[in-house]
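Subject: sequence -> structure tokens, single chain

Hey, anyone have a minute? Need the predicted structure for the following. Not urgent.
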Amino acid sequence: MTATEKDPVLVVVQLTGGNDYLNTVIPYNNGLYRDNRNAVSIGDNQIIHLDGTYGFPSYLAPVKQFWDEGKLAIMHGVGYLDSPRSHFRSMDIWHTCEPDKVGTEGWLGRVVREFDPKKENVVTAVSFGPCLFRALSMPGVPVACIAGPLETYGFLPSIQDKAQRLAVLDRFSRMYQPIPGSGVMEYLGTTGLDSLKGADILKVAPGKYKSDVKYPNTSIGRKLKGVAQVHFADLGTRVFYCDHGSFDTHAGQNPIHASLWSDLSQGLDAFMADLRAHQKSDNVIVLIFSEFGRRVRDNGSGTDHGAAGVTFVLGDAVKGGHYGEMPSLDAKKLVQGDLNPNMDFRGIYSTILDKWMRLDPVPIVNGRHEQPQFLN
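Reply:
Had a minute. Here:
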């Protein structure tokens, strides 16, 4: 890497709950789409054509511009064999790359360990959401987790004096001393100190941020603005993670799906405009995934858990287009009524790790997988 070259950055947007593949990238010329979806199919007058085969629902209009620019890659039929159709198990598989056993290490936790093995930068990974996502979980790897607005983020923020905060942390960890050999006290002390350091580093980001771009006042809009604030502050963060949902649309699907994607589309539009306006977009790609797609046939109001889904990668370094093919909607080729996955999600990870983050993907995703070539 040359002195002027920027470190590559990955932003992950997790669509929690199982995003409906067929109502996101619509095979509008396939009669089986409407045959199976009397309740939830998207009307022809509400579809924006991407080409002669696929279209977006109108509420993805802000994302269509990236397709037109050749900066949006659509990965079809993504998943893995023998989907359990369980939110918890499926998400765990995506997070740990362990489809055959319960994993203990998140794939991005491994990435952060590779980037910062000595924990010299406790904000190498920053997560925006209610908890630490399993993908980032790794023993000994610090992650800054921000549950609310970045402006109010902090560790014991009501205590301004650092020495006093450390004293409170010490007293808190001593509560666990009676547990012999548990290592809990050491873990709490280390985690707390890492959190303290991370909070003190990140608190400078909002003050350094100046932008005329207006983000939508939505949960995902605020999270993406937070990502931009930290990215602009040049704190050495390489991995950002945030969630959006829930996409678990068993009932009343159409208005819920439209609202969720409208919020995300507008948020991504603002985020990319912000990065581009400040010459900060060239080293950022955005991975958008969900733990599975949904059933081909609707249930009269929504759709139930499925198997294959769609994954997107967005960014100025992305070679836009379709990758892979949508699995057949023919009833004879479905698996328990679901689209049959034909692209392993670990191949997408492998491309990002190999071509973008310049890491060996094999130990991170636990094997070799075919890499779709969506990066320039």
